[in-house]
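LOG
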Amino acid sequence: MSERVAITGIGCVSSFGIGYRAFIDAIGSGRSGIVPITRFDTAECRSHLAATIRDFDPTAFFSPLKLRRVDAVGRVALACTRLLFDDAGCTPDTGGRDDVGIALGTFTAGLDSLVEYLSGLTDHGPTGVPAILFSNTVSNAPASLCAIEFGLRGPNVTFNQREASSLSALVFSVGAIRQGRTAAMVTGGADCVEETFFKVHDRFRALSPMRGERGGGAEGARPFDRDRNGFILGEGGFLLLIESTSAAKARGARVYGEIAGVGATASKAALNGWPADGAGLVTAMRLALSDANLRADEIAAVIGTSNGSLALDRQEADAIVEVFGSRSIPVASVKGAIGESGASGAAGLIAGLLSIAGGAVVPTVGFLQPDPALAVCVSRGPQPTRGEAFLVNSVASGGTNYSLVVRAAPGRS
């Protein structure tokens, strides 16, 4: 019999500040973390907003000397790992642990270091760029740095599956624990808004533009909304400590909930486009339900992958109707508040875990005008739910689909 998987720690660095309480309080009250970008010049761009990290001082977690070797995503991942171990009450001892690993999802790790390294190489030649930058140009650097810092000698894997990166990491981690290959995993996602990354998305016309650029709508993130016109990029770290239930029980851990079922599929899609239809997501949701041994009518809510894109939101709405029926289940998305990133799937899982434990699903920030073509019941305010099991979706441009079924522990919000 495979091991069951418990969630015992949460670490967040978000556009609302430090810690999961700042995140869930803001999401639950319907606040948005999306602001005008000040980190770089967007004057020549069609889009100008992002959900950028606020009130984050990495020196509050690690010494400035140590941070010299760490890029932006690495700093977020290290801080979140420290936060989740503190939350779980089980920081590995100085000798490290062979049975604790890390699987990190990221879309942007290494980009800022790569741009800086190549710019220095072009401008000054091989001797004019710090060699230490090179080790951070690879996307697996943040996970490796976390493993070194905290002595995590179990599986060490980085997933870069675009917007679905963090749920990809979670699915891998669940499998590793179920199969007895490790007792615990640090898993989820971390991303940062990097200038080149932002401007490429802007050139692709994937982002919501300023007023008048497309359909007359204002720039902003509006999941499932009638006036949606593209997504907003976000950044942050959303990590969880997951353990076998036997390991959690042995150390008397507080349990936030359980990951009960996983589903993963691929869909036909253009290179940089959303899937051609929702059939792959339908299958992923049904696989997750089957894995959890639950019926569709036993699910309290869906935390959607919807981000304000015309095609993605329509496909997810149709897929939810296919699985759960028309307007029969509360549906929410956190991306109107925190934007889209490789970490957003894990953020949705954390929001569902903490809110549904309290008997209500979070509101969908940015959802103002229902789209009559989308036959789903989207939450405008905190929406009461029945039961503890919920489903979270994540879909990547290029055609990757993930669904997880999670049981929240009542009273842990």
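LOG (cont.) second protein
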Amino acid sequence: MVDDTARDRAIYHALKAADEVAAALQVHLVEEHGADPDRAAAQNPSTNALKLLRQARERLGEGLRAVEADNIAESDQISLRNR
């Protein structure tokens, strides 16, 4: 059976990976499709997608905080915080 620490670490890695994918998609939308990162920008398909990704990343952040990501990130060998 998996202990709580291992479960939280697995959840952390899954949420962190999803957040990294969302971040890459946000950059792609801005750089390649001209999505306006301003929250009050006029609606178009790219800007709407950017808003949805922003919402998703906020929810991912809530999940990361729930598993105390700061504590896990300290020992995360691939975290950008360690560079």
